[in-house]
Amino acid sequence: MRVMKWSMIALAVSAGTSQFAIASSQDESKGFVEDSSLVAKTRIEYMNRDFRNGAGNVAKPGGGFKSGYRQDTGISELVTYESGFTQGIVGFGLDAFVGGTAKLDGGSGRRGNGLFASDSEGNPEDTQSKAGAAAKIRLSDTVLKYGRQFVASPVFATDDSRLLPEVAEGTLLTVKEIKGLELSAGRFTALSSQTGMGKDSINGKHTPGLTSANIAGATYQFTDNFVAGIAASDVDDYFKKQYINANYTFPINDEQSLNFDLNAYKSKDQGQALYGEVDNKLWSLAAAYSIGAHKFTVAHQQSTGDTSYLYGVDGNGTIFVANSIQISDFVGIDERSWQGRYDLNMKTYGVPGLSFMARYVYGDNIETTSGTEGKEHEFNFETKYVLQEGPAKDLSFRLRSAIYRANDAYNADYTADNNDVRIIVEYPLSIL
């Protein structure tokens, strides 16, 4: 599941700085240094998971668990530098990052939330660090980038839900030569986990990790209110995926609008099938009604096929569907799920920067190993405040809370009931 979802329309908007310009981005280049940026992002994260019904993270001799309670607190610093491009027909540039974490609280008896890696004795690491760089070349509105980088494709996405983000290594080509159209293609050969400091640390007990992932995608802005996209991936010896998205906003008046967002995946194992059999179709449709400060969303999601939807070796952010939320993704075998959500933006009431969100998702019809129908449900509440001005502008405070429950049949197959609380404080300081 992902903390920060990137929809295809968000990708299209972020790519749109050159879409409606007469001159190309390279024609407007001011230079390697002149267009550069340097941002230092500080993040403090507290995470508490309280597992119920006999589950836990530290086993006792003879069976059972010592405790079902996990709690960690840490701080991270991520400094990212993005250069501009040199002037001329072809521009050259460089992006780089360096990041580090420090444990503020958490011991071996409460480990397991994914904030820190464990040492040889099973204790959380006190400090960790990682760094990387990527060279880039631009011709007109086409950019080729090679090296360690963050990726946000619906079929290959680096996750940023803990202290430091995942980092991919490889090549990414982005083409924006035609107004409204963005094309992308890439090949990635390594993926570092959020707690893995090496370049290739996404792996499991029985899997060697990423060998290579080839991806391609396209988004097209048909009108100001309608964008659609497709993407596909071939993850060597794991699976192949295809993805489609359509997002349409119907403006009713200045205060009201309707938005519809469709996402769908098709996955199939290939090669050595290192994740085992993969045969899944997954889709979701969300409808959101906005009126002033309020937004009401309903969504339906359906998973079909012989297996559930699988991801991870292709990035733990690679699940762009409506019901992928704080704990569960609601992607069990043959699972169907429904969501109700409410968002409130307090800017309308004189408190800009303050927002609230509450949602509830219920899933059933899940095929389990016991043959009994699996069921699950989850309630999330979130509030966030971002300072709008002053020396600490953009400093944010975020509280995320989740209550997850499932019946016995699905607890055995998936994850235990738990209560999840996270407090995240983040400050992005723009230096250049």
Topology:
Blueprint: H1 8-14, E1 37-51, E2 58-59, E3 65-67, E4 69-82, E5 90-105, E6 127-139, E7 142-149, E8 152-153, E9 156-157, E10 167-175, E11 181-192, E12 213-221, E13 226-235, E14 239-251, E15 256-269, E16 279-291, E17 294-305, E18 336-345, E19 354-366, E20 374-386, E21 396-406, H2 408-413, E22 418-430
Antiparallel strand pairs: 1-4, 1-22, 2-3, 4-5, 5-6, 6-7, 7-10, 8-9, 10-11, 11-12, 12-13, 13-14, 14-15, 15-16, 16-17, 17-18, 18-19, 19-20, 20-21, 21-22
Structure write-up:
It is globular, with a radius of gyration of 22 Å. The strands form 3 sheets. It has an 18-stranded antiparallel barrel. The protein has helices at 8-14, 408-413; strands spanning 37-51, 58-59, 65-67, 69-82, 90-105, 127-139, 142-149, 152-153, 156-157, 167-175, 181-192, 213-221, 226-235, 239-251, 256-269, 279-291, 294-305, 336-345, 354-366, 374-386, 396-406, 418-430. It is mainly β and 432 residues long. The chain is built from 2 helices and 22 strands. The longest helix is centred in the first third of the chain and has 7 residues, at 8-14.
